[in-house]
Amino acid sequence: MRSLLGIFAWIGVGVAVLLSAPVGALVGLNAVAQEQLVETDYDVVTIAEGLDLPWALAFLPNGDMLVTELDGRLRLISNGALVREPIAGVPSVYRASQGGLMDLVLHPDYAENQLVYLSLASGTPAANALRVIRGTFTGSELTNIQTVFEAAPSKDTPVHYGGRMTFLPDNSLLITVGDGFDYREEAQNPGSHFGTIVRVLDDGKVPEDNPFAVKGGGKPEVWTYGHRNAQSIIYDAVRGLVFATEHGPRGGDELNLIEAGKNYGWPAITYGINYTGARVSPFTEREGMEQPLKYWVPSIGPSGMSIYRGAAFPQWDGDILVSSLVFKHVRRLTLDGTQVVGDAIMFPELAHRVRDVRVGPDGLIYLLLEGNEEEKSGRIVRIQPKS
After folding, report:
1. Pairing outcome for strands 339-346 and 330-336
2. What are residue 174's DSSP bridge partners?
3. How far apart are CA 99 and CA 190, in angstroms?
4. Could you tell me if 233 and 174 are in contact, meaning their C-beta atoms sit under 8 angstroms apart?
5. Which pairs from 181-188 meet CB under 8 Å and 24+ separation?
6. How far apart are CA 372 and CA 46, in angstroms?
7. What does the pLDDT look like over 117-151, one tens digit per residue?
8. Does 203 or 38 have the greater pLDDT score?
9. What is the pTM of this model?
10. Average pLDDT, the chain
């Protein structure tokens, strides 16, 4: 349950961060005036523990859950308990730094075809890339593995993979691809997959109506470009809109409205600065480049994201939930149209990096807490109305 200690802990952290932020960065604190701690009664219930850096979660039609672990294991939670043996048949991953087994989504027709999609890092230290595969889940293993997408060119850095996915109503798949950190200038080149969101059909083929498939001038898979490291992407079926968050460098994390063919500016425009304190760019806006719906300075480290729809917390209906790696809490963003009018700090007592946030079929909120890698103390918790 929430406690006053959590509130005081957040206030202390917030003040410390503000005091340590560079003076120039403070100009961009568009979130501070809206931030608030929300008094809502809830219970935090542990669903599974003993996980090794859990990264993503999906709900199966029978009530079970699939969970990815960054080290390369796909786990099953069945009848409320974590199954001891990992799912067999998952391809090997390149596990280094931020690379490993990442996102997990079910095909929209999963009940008929049992197709599961996984994003992972593949390759070697000298040549690695984001790959998306799909396989048929039998209940204990993945079979009929197929590669749906692989980013090109490969890179020699184990960071900034992106790797989040969401399906659109036509069953095409959006996939975020990071800029590889050392290749940030390529995010302005749609002829590369670095710093893009790509769109493929559910079998990996390129949709004929993709922006660069129609007009040329870029890779045909590219849907949008100018991204740094988009760590969540969701399709909101009620609004008919796609939202994505991405990490800035030192400050400048963003929430964006994603629209086909558009340029989101990185690194030509940004509200962040380099980790050294030097400027990435002197510009925060430029003609032909999109502005974020929301940006954060200091960085919150946005990871997972969901739209809340459910009866358990009806006052949050339609709000965007964004998990924070830096502050170990969840942000709840309230929209008026596409304008962010509220930024609430939720569940500040968690004390672990929150890697993902999902809304279950039951309308309850499920959080993946990374825990400690050496002790395999990652866990899944459920937020439910106070009993």
Report:
1. antiparallel
2. 166, 199
3. 23
4. yes
5. 181/157, 181/229, 182/155, 182/156, 182/157, 183/155, 183/157, 184/228, 184/266, 184/267, 185/267, 187/225, 187/226, 187/227, 187/228, 187/266, 187/267, 188/225, 188/226, 188/263, 188/266, 188/267, 188/268
6. 16
7. 999 999 999 999 999 999 999 999 999 999 999 99
8. 203
9. 0.91
10. 91
Contact 182, 228 (CB under 8 A): no
Give the list of residues 6+ apart from residue 28 with CB closer than 8 angstroms, or none: 251, 252, 271, 284, 295, 297
Strand 173-177, strand 128-137: pairing: unpaired
Q: Which residues does residue 244 pair with via DSSP β-bridges, in sequence order?
A: 233, 256
3-state secondary structure of 10: helix
Give the C-alpha distances (Å, rounded to integers) separating 178 from 45, 226, 230, 310. 33, 10, 6, 32
What pLDDT digit, counting tens, does each position of 242-301 carry? Answer: 999 999 999 999 999 999 999 999 999 999 999 999 999 999 999 999 999 999 999 999
In this predicted structure, what is the pLDDT of residue 29? 36
pLDDT tens sequence across 21-49: 333 333 333 443 356 665 568 999 999 99
Catalytic site residues? 160
C-beta separation of 284 from 271 below 8 A: yes
What is the distance between the alpha carbons of residues 35 and 332, in angstroms, rounded to a whole number? Answer: 10
CA atoms within 13 A on the CB side of 173: 28
CA gap 239, 259 in Å, rounded: 13
Q: What is the DSSP string of 294-344?
A: EEESS---EEEEEE--SSSSGGGTTPEEEEETTTSSEEEEEEETTEEEEEE
